[in-house]
Amino acid sequence: MELNLHPIATKCFVSGRDFQEGERVVSYLVREANGEVARRDLLASEDGRFMPPAFVYCRWVVGFKQRKAGENPALTLKLTAENLFLTLAAPEAERSEANTPLLQFLALMLERKKVLKPRGLTEDGSRQLFEHMATHQLYEVPVGDLNVEFFQRIQEHLGVLVGTPKPKAEPAPVPAAG
Hints:
By secondary structure, the protein is of the alpha+beta class. It has one domain. It contains 4 helices and 8 strands. It has helices at residues 81-89, 100-112, 148-153, 155-162; strands at 2-4, 24-31, 37-43, 55-63, 78-80, 116-121, 127-132, 138-142. Strand 7 (127-132) and strand 8 (138-142) form a beta hairpin. The model has no long low-confidence stretch (mean pLDDT 80).
């Protein structure tokens, strides 16, 4: 599962100011009014001035790092389920209640693909521990009930991430023999 998105911007979407090394950048994955999925990056200090579109898939905060000379930005254009999970679940990431259903779904999907391996619960039982098999890093995901209501709540997210199913073609009526 991959989304084609731009890598982190070099300028703030709100103020237009260039990002400086180490500055906190807030990233939003949104659906614009025209239906396009977009990434919006802005300085954390400008977050209160940002007017997101009606639908925000998720939000995360990272420290800005300048691209190295000669680095191929095309390699960072794919936002996969795996690196979206790693970004949202990173220990240094700010936790957001709005991201929890998406994070739970991504963990379930990556567990099925054997990218993540469940390692039990935290001491208080409120978070499930997952080991990322490639790096052996542990990630905590809030425990949730993955029932029908959960999947109905996250349906909008799933549509953009895994694609919406194409409607089945109605079979052509068979002409009556006569």
